[in-house]
Structures are given as C-alpha cells and as structure tokens.
Write a structure and sequence with these properties.
2 copies of one chain form a homodimer.
Chain A: E1 3-5, E2 11-13, H1 22-29, H2 33-40, H3 49-62, H4 68-75, E3 80-85, H5 90-93, H6 96-111, E4 115-120, H7 130-133, E5 139-143, H8 148-160, E6 165-168, E7 179-184, H9 186-199, E8 204-210, H10 215-228, E9 235-241, H11 246-259, E10 264-267, H12 270-282, E11 292-294, H13 301-304, E12 311-313, H14 316-331, E13 340-343, E14 346-348
Parallel strand pairs in A: 3-4, 3-5, 5-6, 6-7, 7-13, 8-9, 8-10, 10-11
Antiparallel strand pairs in A: 1-2, 12-14
Helix pairs in contact in A: 1-2, 1-3, 6-14, 9-10, 11-12
The structure holds a DNA duplex.
DNA sequence: GCAGGTTTGTGTAACGTTACAATGGCATGG
DNA sequence: CCATGCCATTGTAACGTTACACAAACCTGC
C-alpha cells in the first residue's frame, strides 16, 4: 500500500482504490459537497436545473460512484440481506432447491433495491461466518445443517442477534420474535408419498437419505413413517448415502438391492432418486412393477428420467421471495404477526410409483 | 423511525438498529475504545491478559459485533466481491452452470474471508444494478446477456470502473487491464460435437437455442458450424426456443419434427436437450438411430436421461474458484499478467449420439 | 535514584456520507 | 426602503471504526 508524506512530515496510508469522493466532484463543479450529494440522490427540487447539469457533468467526467460504506454508516442502514448456508458442498449449494430459493430471494431484494450476500460455511464453523460475526447486513436468512445439537445452538445464536432473521426448513420453536420460520411442508410431502405407496400395496421400503443432516430430510422421513404407522408389517429401512454424488449413491443402492429388493425405494431428493433409478436398471429391475421409486423436490429431474419420476413438487422460488418480503417488511418497521410460514407441496405422480 | 430530544432541544434521528458500539463496550469494561478495538481484532500482544478477559466479557455480555460499514470506510476496503448476472429468469439463475459458478466463487471467497454479493438484473437495466451504481465491492464479476450492442456497452462500462473485474463467457477484447476474461472453451465444445456428428455421417442438424442472447450459446453454434465447414451439403438450421421452460421447448421441437426429422438435434444446453429427447420420444423416434441428440454443460442431466445424453462437460465450479483467486490476487496488489483464462471442456459420449 | 527500555493503554484525526440549521440573494408588497 | 418569505446553496456535526503518535507505568542495570 502506497504511503505519502504529509506537510508535517508524518506518513499516512493512502486509499488503495482510486475512489472519487463527493468532495472531488464538488471542487470540479465549483459547488458545495451538499449540492453534489443532493444531485446524486435525486433531490432535484433542491437544486437549480443549471447547477444540476453542471454537477451531473462533473459526476460523469470523474466517474463518481457513491461510497456505500460511508452512506451505510451515516444512515445506519445497509439495504442488504445475508444468507448463510451451513454447508459447503458444491452439490448442495447448487442443488435446485437451494439455488431456486436464493434466486427468489435475490430477485425480490433486487426489486426493492436491496442486495444479497451469500455465504456457505461448514456447520462446525457456522458461527464464525463473516456474515454473522460482523454486522454488515440489515437482516439474515439461514439454512441450518448438522447434528441436532449443532443446529439448536446455531438457532439460539440467531435468536440473540436482534435483527430480523428468516430460518428455512427448520422445526425449532422460536423464543424471540426476530426469527421467522419459512419452510415447505416436508412432513406432509413424506406422508403423501407414504399414502401413495400404501395404495400400491407396498410392504417394504428403503429410505435413501444423504449423509448431510438436514431438518428437511428428517421431516420427510418422519412424514413417510407417520403415514404407514397404522398399517402393520410395513418395514421401513433407512440407508445413508456416503455422499450426494451420483456414483456413490448408485453403488450403495446396488449393494442393498443385491441383498434384498424392497417393494419401494423412497429417495430424500430427486438427485438421489436419479441414482436409485440407475441402480435399479443395472439390476434389471422393472420400475415400478418390481420396485417403485420416488423422489423429492421436483424441479426438472422428473421430466428427464424414464420412467418419469414420482416426486414432491417444491415451491422453493416462492419461499425465497416470501422470505425477502417478510424481512423487508420488518425492516420497514412493520410488526409481522406470522412467525411461521409453511408452504404446501404438491405430489407429482410420474410413472415410477 | 424514532426521534429523540437532545439537550439543546433539537431532534435527531436515532439508529434504527440497536447496534452496540466500541464506545459502549469500552465504557462497560472501563477501558478506552482503542483497547476494545485491539481485543476485537486479536491484537493480543497489545493488551494485558487480564484486561483482555474483562473486555471479552463485556463484548459477550453486550453482544457486540463490529460495524462493517465503519470498518470498511476507515480501511477503504470492503473484503467483498459482487457478481452481476444480466438475466432475471429463475430458470437461468438456478441453471446448474450458473449456480456451480457461483458456488465456486462463493466457496473460494469465503475461505479468504471475503463475502459475495449476488444480483440478477435484466439486460436492459444492467447499468442500474445497485452493485454497479454504488461502490460497495472491491471487485466485480459479470455474466453478460442481451444483444451484442447491449453486451458491448456493458462491457465498456465495466472497463471504466477501474476496479478488478472478471467477465465470464464473453469474447470481447479488453482494452483496459482491470478486466480479466474467464470462460470455458464453448467453441471447442461445439466443434467437438460437430466432429462427433460427422463421424456418425449426419447430414442435417437442428440447433436448438434459448431465446436468451448469451455469448456462450453463440460460441457453441459457431464451433459446431466451423467443424462442419469443410464438409459439403451439411445443413444446420437454428431454432429459437420461445423460453427455457421444458414444455415450450418440447412443443417447438415437435413442431419442427413434424415438418422434417433431421439427422441430429444439437441443443445449446442440457436442459434444452432433455426437452428435445422428450419430443423425440413423443414422435416415436429412436435415439440415436433415427435422430442423434446432444446437450451442453453436462452436470447431472446426462445421467438421468434414457438414452444417456452425449454432452460437453463444463468446469463451472473451477471457473468460479479461479475468478475468485484472480480477483483476490489483484486486490492484494499482484499484477496478473494473464488477461484471459480459457477452461477446456470435455466431451462426454453418452448413448444419445 | 535515575537513564533507558519495554509493556500497556489512551487521545485524536481521519474515512465519505447525510440531516439539519443557517446563510445569502432575490423577489414581493406595504 | 425595509419587513417578509421563498429559493438555492452551504457549513457543520455526527455515524463507528482504525492508524498513529504519544503517555503512563513498570521494569532493568548501574
């Protein structure tokens, strides 16, 4: 970093970026800083047309852009929301569910002139995410992963922050009213699949779930089991995929199939279901005649697979938008009563179950 | 917003957020502001252990978090990168290519304690994206879409910014050394598909491309045509899908198929290819015997389709990481010589061509 | 007991912006 | 020609932080 001599002989650091300030523009245009500021912020009623033109010229010539940090500091407002995702696996971060959620949030915020900060962080280091340790966002969103104790402690942490927070896909009861829960009805989705499989007279089920400990997955399994609760002699066995990678999931499924072929395989997500279908094909099993297969979070995968996948449709994009709306409302000072938004899911009946 | 009376009777706005400042902590701990600041920033060699403990207690009790805007203003550094994507279509924003690119960038930045701002914006309003109009990021990334003139003007705009910028998937020659181009070799990918189809003795090709005007798509088509250039009598016809939605793409493909069945259909992306396969199936065409089908940007779709899709594998995640590395290096003052990074793509031979 | 050093802590002036009060100029009207 | 009001513009004091210079306290060794 460059240093320069001051008159008195001391040295002082110079800015690293060659940023243009209001003061420079004001000198160039021969007006005061405040006049430039008023022009920049479109307070046209305060500035004579002729002056405004001159200032606008200077702004364009010098390529002036207002310094956000200074403005935010002065206004005690950042017009920015952060989202922390407690996982760093690229496969999870670019999962259609996550990316649609983020798209919805981002698009909404963009429309009301807010920006979005995105950070993925491992569950163990959750609380040291920059977005959380430094106060640089007006509001936060979070997707919690990891063991239940870990998630609980992260949840408590978020409650203490005192700024509006949306937590997605989580079941804890908030004790503080800064937190709003937004989730899709994973339990109902799981239950709907369970009922469908009951109609198909399925007796044994393999539930394939990712290693990732995520509340949504738990709820899906819970919903599934609950729908089967009153029917005796239905065997549900959970299988942990060693990773979310296609090959790993396919391999572990094949291992299970070679031991015993269940009547149905319920995968916790569509991408897992894709690998499961592939494993069934490799075993020469007909789907759904020999084994029924279902997925979860249907965006596009169900359109590609053959047979087309029976899955549960997710309103991820709308959930993201909704979270944005809630947060911006809160920041605007509105007391939002609803602390819990559950989005309904839709059962998509494909040919695989 | 609350107001409060000052001693002299004036009113002045209070902060909307109940943020705790260094001053408050310092009062609570009975030390100076600077001591607290030193503790917060881990300058442990400057503070006696006993004092540090006391300060840390106060910090924890008051729930202090440093104000990022103030710090950034003082340091003239934001430790933050912004990415602008010149499209607001959720289907594009959550396209595997885009979301993997963003994951790579986000993960890298997170590791070096930078944050990432994401904004999608329509090509027409590109230059009014908050990320661009306000100076709040140390560096920027951009994905340009829209007509060539529009993209050119956005590119010029980015050149004038004077801060490090990475532009993805674009072919313009930068005139200023703040811009670095990062792209995958779409041309080579298209050419590889072209050569593969030549081997298959294909004579007529339908190129299905999205409405979205994106440089990557142009390059793919150009590469394809270039590979066929020296072989006479090969007919390449481009079809514009009315949207990237599966149903629209399938419909338009079927319309074309009912007029004439080409030897091959080259889709500009895998998701388009998925719809194309579905259209072929609906027409009772065998793939690849009656018509060969190929995709582009292979992440997972090729694993799901039957026949499995022949496609071009994209290193999107690595491209995102690489962009982050370059930008952070530049911000660290390193002169980066390379102004142009081209990532090689891989041809994945599936069963569809 | 005091020069010389080290360790620990503090005071101050920025950083670039905005809210607000205050200024000067220029009409209008009595 | 002076009050009055309005318009356009400006000066100033924050916002919360950090770099730097400096001060105070506490050691040494002679």
């Amino acid at each position: 970093m460059r240093r320069m001599k001051l008159q008195n002989g001391r040295t002082r650091r110079t800015r690293r970026s060659n940023s243009v300030t209001l003061a420079q523009v004001s000198r160039d245009a021969g007006v005061s800083i405040m006049t430039v500021s008023n022009v920049v912020r479109g307070r046209t009623e305060l500035v004579k047309l002729e002056t405004r033109r001159r200032v606008e010229e200077s702004i364009a010539r010098l390529n002036y852009r207002p310094n956000l940090s200074a403005r935010n500091l002065r206004l005690a407002e950042n017009r920015s929301v952060g989202i922390v995702i407690a996982d760093t696996d690229p496969a999870f971060l670019s999962d259609p569910f996550i990316s649609r959620l983020v798209s919805g949030l981002s698009n909404y915020l963009s429309g009301v002139d807010y920006t979005l900060d995105v950070q993925g962080v491992s569950p163990e280091r959750f609380e040291s995410a920059t977005i959380l340790t430094k106060a640089g966002n007006d509001a936060l969103c979070a997707i919690l992963c990891g063991s239940k104790e870990l998630r609980k402690s992260h949840f408590e942490y978020l409650q203490k922050l005192g700024q509006p927070v949306v937590v997605f896909q989580e079941m804890f009861q908030p004790h503080s009213d800064n937190i709003v829960m937004v989730h899709q009805d994973d339990f109902a989705g799981g239950a709907a699949l369970g009922r469908l499989l009951l109609e198909r007279n399925v007796r044994s089920i393999l539930f394939v779930r990712p290693m990732l400990e995520w509340c949504a997955v738990e709820q899906r399994e819970r919903g599934l089991r609950s729908a089967l609760r009153h029917t005796k002699h239905i065997d549900v066995k959970a299988v942990l995929a060693p990773s979310e990678g296609f090959d790993d999931v396919e391999r572990i499924t094949r291992e299970h199939l070679s031991r015993r072929v269940p009547d149905a395989i319920v995968a916790a997500t569509d991408s897992l279901a894709g690998a499961v279908l592939s494993a069934c094909e490799a075993h020469g099993l007909r789907v759904p005649a020999d084994v029924a297969v279902t997925g979860f979070n249907g965006f596009d995968v169900w359109r590609y697979t053959r047979p087309s996948l029976t899955t549960v449709m997710s309103p991820a994009y709308e959930m993201g938008r909704h979270a944005g709306e809630i947060l911006v409302q809160r920041l605007g000072g509105k007391k939002v009563v609803r602390l819990n938004s559950i989005f309904p899911v839709g059962l998509h009946k494909g040919d695989s179950a």
